[in-house]
Specification:
The structure is a single chain. The chain has one domain (about 5-210): SOS response associated peptidase-like (hypothetical protein yedk fold, Alpha-Beta Complex). The chain is about 10% helix and about 35% strand. The protein is built from 4 helices and 12 strands, in the order E-H-E-E-E-E-H-E-E-E-E-E-E-H-H-E. Strands 3, 4, 5, 6, 9, 10 and 11 form a 7-stranded mixed beta sheet that branches. Strands 2-1-7-8-12 form a 5-stranded antiparallel beta sheet, with no helix packed on it.
Length: about 220
């Protein structure tokens, strides 16, 4: 799954790669971003428009679902295109969430040990997401997950869907709505490009997200 992540260098790098016009000061560096908070993403509202920055509540609940409906933070790639809850957003409201890495917890004899997972080349991670308007008019999102691959599978059986560079443009293209077409043109990043290491259990406190030391090896 993807339940906590870090984003400190990824935002400006991905913004430049996508041609996003951004303010001089981007979002602050955060090293332990939990669900139920505001995160920054990118979307494209028309085929001939430039991608743009948007603020997203990490928790997906379309306004038609009303207040007591589920508010998932993740959507599985296996069902996102066919689920009544997600399929419209998958077809017409896709986004990218920039990250430098994410956290998973490995069960050990001494309890759950957090691990930080990132790219071996330290390039930005482009997480595939979907979004919808919420009851209050804001936008809420879910991050897509898939079966874990490469060394990520050593820590957890799921991982975020991370797009390769050639997939950024088609993933954001709102004119690309057919499920099978999306499947054929969108690719995940090669599983050999990930690594992980154990980190401090201070990560377990979701309010603690300003300390760069949280991603250092324990």
């Amino acid at each position: 799954m993807c339940g906590r992540f870090a984003s400190y260098d990824a935002y400006p790098k991905l913004a430049r790669r996508l041609g996003v016009v951004v303010a001089e000061e981007g979002p602050p560096a955060r090293y332990n971003i939990p669900p139920g908070t505001w995160i920054t993403g990118f979307r494209q509202v028309a085929h001939d428009a430039q991608p743009e920055q948007l603020e997203l509540w990490w928790g997906y609940r379309p306004k038609w679902a009303k207040g007591k409906a589920a508010q998932p933070i993740n959507a599985r790639v296996e069902t996102v295109a066919t689920s009544g809850y997600f399929k419209y957003a998958f077809a017409r409201a896709r986004c990218i969430v920039p990250a430098d890495g994410w956290f998973e917890w490995l069960v050990t004899d001494t309890g759950k040990q957090p691990h930080y997972l990132t790219r071996t080349d330290r390039e930005p991670i482009a997480k595939a997401g979907i979004y919808a308007e919420r009851e209050d008019g804001s936008l809420g999102c879910a991050i897509l997950t898939e079966p874990a691959r490469g060394t990520a599978a050593e820590v957890h059986d799921r991982m975020p869907l991370i797009l390769d560079d050639a997939s950024l443009e088609p993933w954001l293209d709102p004119d690309l709505t057919d499920r099978e077409t999306i499947r054929h043109v969108v690719r995940h990043l090669d599983g050999s490009l990930f690594e992980h290491w154990p980190v401090s259990r201070a990560v377990n406190r979701p309010g603690n997200d300003e300390d760069a030391g949280l991603i250092n090896p324990a």
